[in-house]
């Protein structure tokens, strides 16, 4: 499923089997960069159950660039305020998040990128995680 929004290269949510995210359950997204002279905003897409027991999540993002180079980013994300109020939006028991994780990222090669996200918490499997993915938006031109 590709997004029709202008400048959005990918915007996906992938269901997590049994709502329990295991370390070896990698969420994969691929997308093409046709204009490497632009910055890109990369966001994490998450959906959790209201039963999710933590106010945060730690992710590991691995990017394979068109030339085969691999980069890895450890990403801690806050999901709730100290009061317990979720920072995402939702209806009923499902809370959705779209959280910027890499701002003004320079994807400087034309071609196909492959992004892989895994959960990096101490608990395996991590319960009450419904879906995960990424959103990549083309931003302003680099001068």
What can you see in these coordinates?
- The protein has strands at 8-11, 14-15, 20-21, 27-33, 38-49, 56-64, 70-78, 89-91, 94-106, 111-119, 126-127, 129-141.
- The radius of gyration is 15 Å and the shape is globular.
- It is an all-beta fold.
- Helices cover 0% and strands 59% of the residues.
- The model has no long low-confidence stretch (mean pLDDT 93).
- β8 and β9 (94-106) form a beta hairpin.
- The chain contains no helices and twelve strands.
- Strands 1, 2, 5, 8, 9 and 12 form a six-stranded antiparallel β-sheet that branches.
- It has a single domain, classed as Jelly Rolls.
Notable characteristics:
Jelly Rolls; globular; four-stranded antiparallel beta sheet; mainly beta; 59% strand; 0% helix; single chain
What are the SSEs and their pairings?
Layout lengths: L7 E4 L2 E2 L4 E2 L5 E7 L4 E12 L6 E9 L5 E9 L10 E3 L2 E13 L4 E9 L6 E2 L1 E13 L2
Antiparallel strand pairs: 1-12, 2-12, 3-11, 4-10, 5-9, 5-12, 6-7, 6-10, 8-9
Main sheet makeup: 6 strands, antiparallel
Radius of gyration over all CA atoms, rounded = 15 Å
* Proportion of strand residues: over 45%
Shape: globular
Q: What is the count of DSSP helices, taking H or I runs of 4+ residues?
A: 0
Distance between the termini: 32 Å
Structural class: mainly beta
Give me the CATH fold name.
Jelly Rolls
Q: What is the C-level CATH assignment?
A: Mainly Beta
The percent range for helix content is under 10%
Element-level helix/strand string: EEEEEEEEEEEE
Low-confidence stretches: none
Residue-averaged pLDDT: 93
Number of domains: 1
Task: Count the E strands.
Answer: 12
Task: Tell me the CATH architecture.
Answer: Sandwich
